[in-house]
Write a structure and sequence with these properties.
Blueprint (H helix, E strand, L loop, with lengths): L9 E4 L7 H14 L9 E9 L4 E5 L12 H12 L5 E10 L12 H14 L4 E5 L5 E4 L16
Helix pairs in contact: 2-3
Length: 160
């Protein structure tokens, strides 16, 4: 038997104001679309803004349904739209923000497991890391230099 140690390295910014202007703008777009989320059941709104290599920004928000499992998270809404609208473009950066209507979210909220898997699929496809920036409603912003930083044992086509 051997032991495998897996480590994750994230950068933590005290606030969105510590980010570059480009990233502050990307997060602002994520906040704007977050506030348009359709989340009447969970009361938890999430927004994602994706910067593509062609300069376009694609946004998405979570969309719920009374039949809970059939809703879709903000990250997957945005990444699937980017893949459909700009199939040849590479994803450079994704900004994600979350807010609850029940309480203030002050800690960074990373993508859920299903979203991590969907995002890593695009990272593997483009053979280039996708930077992730995620935050709550206020407070710290975390940066992962790659989706694989938050999903280290990637399940991709090599596993099939």
């Amino acid at each position: 038997m051997k032991k495998l140690d897996i480590t994750t390295s994230l950068e933590v910014y005290d606030s969105v104001q510590e980010l570059s202007e480009e990233l502050q703008d990307l997060m602002k777009q994520a906040v704007e679309v977050r506030d348009q989320a359709y989340a009447p059941y969970s009361k938890f709104k999430v927004g994602a803004a994706i910067l593509l290599d062609n300069g376009e920004v694609v946004v998405g928000s979570n969309q719920e349904n009374a039949s809970y499992p059939s809703g879709l998270c903000a990250e997957r809404t945005a990444v699937y739209y980017a893949g459909a609208k700009y199939p040849e473009s590479r994803i450079l950066k994704i900004a994600i923000t979350a807010r609850s209507l029940n309480q203030e979210v002050t800690k960074p909220v990373p993508p859920c497991g299903a979203c991590r898997q969907a995002l890593v699929e695009y990272e593997v496809k483009q053979k280039e890391p996708i930077e992730l920036y995620f935050m709550g409603e206020t407070g710290e912003v975390m940066k992962a230099a790659s989706v694989s930083e938050i999903l280290p044992l990637v399940f991709d086509s090599n596993c099939l």
